[in-house]
Structure formats: C-alpha cells, structure tokens
Amino acid sequence: QYSPDSVAGADGHTDPTEITFPxxxxxxxxxxAPQCPCLLRGHGPRxxxxxFSGPVFECNSLCECGERCQNRLVQRGLGLSLQVFRTRCxxxxxxxxxxxxxxxxxxxxxxxxxxPAEARRRAKARSPREPxxxxxxxxxxxxxRVMETFVDxxxxxxxxxxxxxxxxPNLFMVPVRVDSMVPKLALFAAxxxxxxxxxxxxxxxxxxxxxxxxxxxxxLEEENGLRKPCYCGSRSCASFLPWDSxxxxxx
Length: 251
Known about the structure:
The chain is an alpha/beta fold. About 10% of the residues lie in helices and about 20% in strands.
C-alpha cells in the first residue's frame, strides 16, 4: 500500500500523525530565528546546506506562519521526478529523471513506525532470502540516552523503500521532526545528481559498515549467513550490506 507519509504500525506503539508540539505565533510569511520557537528547537533543513548533527525541527500545522514559510520543506513531500526501475543485479532501484542540485530534499523513507519488540519480531520472522526493509534509526542524545525509531515499509510505504544501498552514496538521511518527536526520515542529495543517475544512500549511516571495520573484525559465522552481499560496485565497497544484529538478539 502506497503512503507518502509514515503511519502507525500494527502494534500501535507509536502514532506519527499525532501532533504534540505547540505551534509558533509568527505572523509573517517565513519564520526567522531567534523569534520563532520552532527554530529555537533546532535549525530547519534548507536547500544547499550540508548535513549536521544538531536536531532539525520544522513548523507544523498549528503554527500561524504561512504555508510558504522556509521552515516547511520535508512536510511538503516529494517534488521531484523519480522513476522506479529494474537494476542489473540489485532488484528494484530508483533514479532521477531530472538534475538534482546538491543539498536538495529528495524524498522520505516512509512506512509503518514500530516499537522495538514488533521490529525485532518481524526481523526474526523473515527468512534470510526475503528482503528486509526495516530501518533502525538511533539518535544519541546529549545526556547519553539513545532514542530509537523503527520504520518498516514492507506493507505500507513510499518510493523510499526501493532505494538501494551504496558504500559511496549520493543521498544522506536526516531525521526531521514536524508534529512530534517521531521523526520523518528525510533523504537529501549529498552532491549534484545528474538525470538518469541511480539514487542511493548508506544503510548504515557510515558508522557500522566501513571496509576497514569489515577487514579487522569479520562477522561471526552465523551472522555471516544472514548478511547479504553488496553489489554497489564502489571502490570502497564493504562487500556486505549493513546488518543490525541487535534486531535478531534477545533484548
């Protein structure tokens, strides 16, 4: 089932459509810092900017600013011409049908937002040959806590589910919050992308799948059997697709 936005998973753990953030009272066409409380929470994503580690918040439906506010970008959804196509050895993929400037918002990775127990149950229920679309996002907070978000577009999702992994990707992911602490998993262009070029991102976020890490500490035999080979063809290819063993372990 196609859905441009994430929805609550079957476990009912989290409802991403619930509005818990208050709106701003900015009565201008576009909000500016430091007057706007939404911008005080964190900088909004803007075309042409590079990724950063700080929190990102957009104005929401309760805000009094206009729909043309520059702090409303990801919530507007897909605005580019993309095509799902059959790749030579990676199954389905997505390519751009128009040039995309670096820093542009491309699309969201949307699906069912699950709790950790349901995400783990679904991951274990799949056979090694079945595709696994569950994305586990972990954000490290300043006080040492880790905030987890699990999105599964297997049954409900958007074009983001067809994006392939690459060890040298042209997209990067930024969690963007609009209505609540449940983030939208927004994908931005890491560089200028030509029309016809396949769109890819690094499933690991470049933290757990680096080639040198793969050489220094090989996965256990039983884990190796669950990992899938990587066919990205990049010079720095790690040989395997990123794999989160925590989803297969007992909490």
